[in-house]
Amino acid sequence: MSTPLEPQHHMDPVPGDTNENAIALKEVEGLSQGQIVRRRFFRHRGALVGLVSLALVALLAYSSIGVLGIPGWWKFNHFTPGEVVNGGAPTMHMPTWLGGSGFVIGDHPFGQDEIGRDVFARVMKGTQTSLNVMVVISVLAALLGMVVGALSGYFRGGIDQGLMRLTDLFLTFPVIVIGAVLGKLAGGAGPFFLAVALGAVSWPTLARLVRGEFLSLREREFVDAAKVAGASSFRIMRKHMIPNAMGVIIVNTTLLASAAVLLETALSYLGFGIKSPDVSLGTMIDEYQSAFATRPFLFWWPGLFIIIIALSVNFIGDGLRDAFDPRQKRVPSARKMRLAATRSDESSVSGSVQ
């Protein structure tokens, strides 16, 4: 005698989850992966604020004092001393609705240092240097991390063991310690060489992430199909696997850029980074720390721009992470939820009538 089957209770989908999924699928219907990523990124308010803030800071820094021999619109440079006016106090005043005496920029909006150099021009030059160092460190670290992680994750075996032991060796020492040693050697040669030295030791974390992604991708069907078609290993990595791992690479490179700004600032502040006559935001804080009690504005402006750059890059990285990660769901508004529920009810009613 056969045993009667127990009734199976199927879990009905939660109406809220169904509505959210319907809204998500409707929004991305007919769009490519790139279009979906762009749409998600530009809907992230924090990422947009960070992108606009970073763009404005870069535009102000490069256009005000010029770059690559192209003169800027600001009348002072960052190295020529001048006559100290009004004790070097800032000439910029806040508008009346902020409690000031009326908005005025003046000749030295950020003030002057003890020998009459314009602080605004020096802050802009320091911002240029910090942005340039950030770009070089992040690009170099991304390239090294991508190459090491790709080779390790794809070939595995002895190559994987050797590269990962090298990665573990770099991770054993704090980056600030390695950076201090390299900065002492390369800091006097200029910001570019310091950035190259720091980028050469900033790749291990990204390499591990890329390796994990490649270990997963190498088991996918499209990689097997490419092998059967006769594609070489390097072509498979370049054409098929790296594009699929680009989300992890881009997001973590952006977050690495924020860490690069703080690393360069910390090393320059401690005296192991950029050396005079070159100017960076970290060296300015180091130079003006003795004036913090008497003229704090010399200390405030470099610190403010460091915070703006670091936060902006972090917000951009957060937006890119949400855009590339399909598991990140944007909570629909109450209006969209009601509209989706109404459409779902109408479709179920029309289906029952038919």
Task: Describe this protein with a few key phrases.
354 residues, mainly alpha, MetI-like fold, 66% helix, flat, disordered N terminus
SSE layout and pairing:
Elements: H1 15-27, H2 33-42, H3 45-64, H4 119-155, H5 157-172, H6 175-186, H7 191-199, H8 204-217, H9 221-228, H10 233-270, H11 281-288, H12 297-324, H13 334-353
InterPro entries: BP-dependent_transpt_permease (IPR050366), MetI-like (IPR000515), MetI-like_sf (IPR035906), OppC_N (IPR025966)
Domain ABC transmembrane type-1: 127-317
Family: Belongs to the binding-protein-dependent transport system permease family. OppBC subfamily.
Return the CATH architecture of the domain at 34-62 and 114-329. Orthogonal Bundle
Class by SSE composition: mainly alpha
**CATH homologous superfamily of the domain at 34-62 and 114-329, by name?**
MetI-like
H/E element sequence:
HHHHHHHHHHHHH
CATH topology of the domain at 34-62 and 114-329: MetI-like fold
Note the quaternary state here.
Answer: single chain
Q: What is the first-to-last residue Cα distance?
A: 42 Å
Specify Rg, calculated over alpha carbons: 27 Å
Summarize the amount of helix as a percent range: 55-70%
**What would the principal axes of the Cα set say about the shape?**
flat
Determine the number of helices (DSSP H or I, runs of at least 4 residues).
13
The biggest beta sheet is recorded as: none
Q: Could you tell me the mean pLDDT?
A: 82
**Uncertain ranges:** 1-16
CATH top level label of the domain at 34-62 and 114-329:
Mainly Alpha
Keywords: Cell inner membrane, Cell membrane, Membrane, Peptide transport, Protein transport, Transmembrane, Transmembrane helix, Transport
Protein name: Oligopeptide transport system permease protein OppC
Subcellular location: Cell inner membrane; Cell membrane
Family: Belongs to the binding-protein-dependent transport system permease family. OppBC subfamily.
